[in-house]
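tokens incoming
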């Protein structure tokens, strides 16, 4: 799971770097598509593992996953239809959401795995 998290954070960092170089808008669509695909794969693996071990908070954790996917899909749709400059908004959203999710929800999951 940690490798998945590093990859997801790496995608967010790519967007930050592109923004710093003045190329955020140029790469946003590609990064969003990569983020959606990889996040869906990661969440599926994580949810399957939760089910295998009988994780008590699985349904709540899955709802968080579903919420993130829906929000990122909505941002991608806004990007594709040209409604507003999203680079900074997407960057902030992803950074806050992913870091909070990893630090809180995934940490609780990891603790449950080790007990």
């Amino acid at each position: 799971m940690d490798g998945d998290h590093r990859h997801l954070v790496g995608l967010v960092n790519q967007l930050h770097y592109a923004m710093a170089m003045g190329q955020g808008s140029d790469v946003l669509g590609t990064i969003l598509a990569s983020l959606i695909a990889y996040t869906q794969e990661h969440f599926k693996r994580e949810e399957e593992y939760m089910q295998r071990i009988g994780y008590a908070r699985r349904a709540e954790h899955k709802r968080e996953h579903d919420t993130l996917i829906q929000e990122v899909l909505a941002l991608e749709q806004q990007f594709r239809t040209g409604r507003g400059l999203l680079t900074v908004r997407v960057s902030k959203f992803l950074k806050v959401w992913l870091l909070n999710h990893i630090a809180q929800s995934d940490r609780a999951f990891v603790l449950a795995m080790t007990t």
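note: The chain has one domain: 2-114.
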